[in-house]
Amino acid sequence: MNSLHVAIVGAGPAGSSAATFLAQQGARVTLLERGRFPRDKICGDGCTPRTLWMLERLGLGALPLGTEAAPVDSVYALSPGGVVLEEPIPSRLFGGKASVIARQVLDERLVQRAVQAGAELREGVLVDGLERDGQGVLLRCRTGEPLRADLVLGCDGSPSVVRRALGAPDFPRHEGAFAVRAYYENVRLSHPRSFAFFWEQELLPAYGWIFPLPGGRANVGLGMRADQLDASEAKLPVLMEKFCASPRVAAELAGARRVGKVKGHHLPYGSFSRHTQFDRALLLGDAAGFVNPLTGEGIEFALESGAFAAEAVAEAVAAGDFSARGLGGYARRWETRFRTAFRLNRRLMWAFERPWLLDRVFRTANRSTSVRGELSDILAGEATHISWRFLAEVARGG
Predict the structure, then answer these.
(1) Cβ distance 378 to 48 under 8 Å?
(2) pLDDT digits (tens, 9 = 90+) for 131-159
(3) CB neighbours (10 Å) of residue 366?
(4) Pairing relationship of beta strands 151-154 and 5-9 according to DSSP bridges
(5) Which has more pLDDT, 381 or 184?
(6) Are 210 and 222 in contact (CB under 8 A)?
(7) Contact 119, 113 (CB under 8 A)
(8) Could you report the per-residue pLDDT of 208-260, keeping only the tens digit for each?
(9) 33-47 pLDDT, tens per residue?
(10) For residues 37 and 53, is the Cβ–Cβ distance under 8 A?
(11) First to last CA, the chain
């Protein structure tokens, strides 16, 4: 590993995670970031229990609660018909503790950890193409000199310059969503330690969220599948205004003030993740499509993909094979961990877009411990299957 040079394009969670693990193994790592830290990243800012577990693996541990991270230990959800579901995050899910951390804070802490581990960070570098040959990879940079490395990891989000340069197809409209979010201050939430989800009848199939942040702030957002947004001819910022004005959400935001603009981003679904390893190249995080189709969660998958990439690169070094086949351990790892959950959550979108069915699921969960437990797993992104008991109880409910 000491003779290996890895170029990583994008210093978000996926890039910084891979950089940390690779540098710890002795590789030379150059981390290229188009922005300059601290920089914003449009996101829901929610960090699941598995995300916190990954932060501990990276050596970050828990960020200071109250100043950088808001503690979350429950889910508060409202169905289209007004059925309320309140449930603690089960302790079996990595201790049942979660957080909300603004990406401006989280990403800077992650990249600092990568530099501490030995990675070189180059900020303000925009990569606009690459070439591969038998000797390595040449990255063309709009700002600065070209960079040659043995391998390249594409961690540059969606849309990804590296993904396109490698010839991977774009994500179909039905295999991705668009989301918008805004920050609010002076917020007094009814459930200040909860991930709050809202399915508003008049906004379906869109769904919204309110996540608490430190200092009386909140991340408020709305997401909708891209092809459904196209068909509706609606504009997400307009839907966002309707969401914030809806009675249940307006009550949560009473007296609060929006800070800054409503900003949007693309979420590529993991159910379309097929093209992730190439000769001398891997795609990680959003660039690979590692996003939960049901909830839009991507941070935990980005962090884990960084660990998987580092392990696969170590295997390729040992074998002396940097071809797509030699890097195949990456796909084996992420498919084992992510694939089933991505496909399940893609199918579950159908149920969550039907108000009568979502009402029934919530009512049944309020009466049944087993249904409530499985629903908690679903909303936490940990479910890999739905039991027959769950289906039978929902079918009998009403």
Answers:
(1) no
(2) 998 889 999 998 778 999 999 999 999 99
(3) 15
(4) parallel
(5) 184
(6) no
(7) no
(8) 999 999 999 999 999 999 999 999 999 999 999 999 999 999 999 999 999 99
(9) 999 999 999 999 999
(10) no
(11) 59
Amino acid identity at 66: G
DSSP 335: I
Residue 26 Ramachandran class (φ > 0 left, ψ -120 to 50 alpha, else beta): left
Residue 139 near residue 32 (C-beta atoms within 8 A)? yes
Q: Is the pTM of this model over 0.90?
A: yes
CB under 8 Å to 263, separation ≥6 — which residues? 42, 180, 181, 182
Q: Which two tokens mark 180?
A: 């918008």
Cα distance between residue 259 and residue 112, in whole Å: 27
Category of 76 on φ-ψ map: left (φ > 0), alpha (ψ -120 to 50) or beta:
beta
What is the phi/psi pair of residue 38, to 5°? -75, 135
Compute the distance between CA of residue 214 and CA of residue 284 in angstroms, rounded to an integer. 29
Tokens of 154: 């594409």
Give the residues across from 185 on adjacent strands: 257
Cis before 237? omega within 30: no
Q: What value does the mean pLDDT take over residues 83-103?
A: 93
pLDDT tens digits, one per residue of 341-390: 999 999 999 989 899 999 999 999 999 999 998 988 888 778 888 999 99
What pLDDT does 397 receive? 76
Mean pLDDT of the chain: 94
Nearest-angstrom CA–CA distance, 233 and 371: 36
CA atoms of 166 and 151, how far apart (whole Å): 13
Residue 23, token pair as written in the block: 């540098």
Cα distances from 319 to residues 134, 313, 314, 343, in angstroms, run: 16, 10, 9, 32
Contact 1, 27 (CB under 8 A): yes
Structure tokens at 266: 């693309």
% of the chain beyond a pLDDT of 70: 99
Whether the predicted pLDDT of 398 surpasses 60: no
At residue 145, the 3 state secondary structure works out as coil
CB 99 within 8 A of CB 47: yes
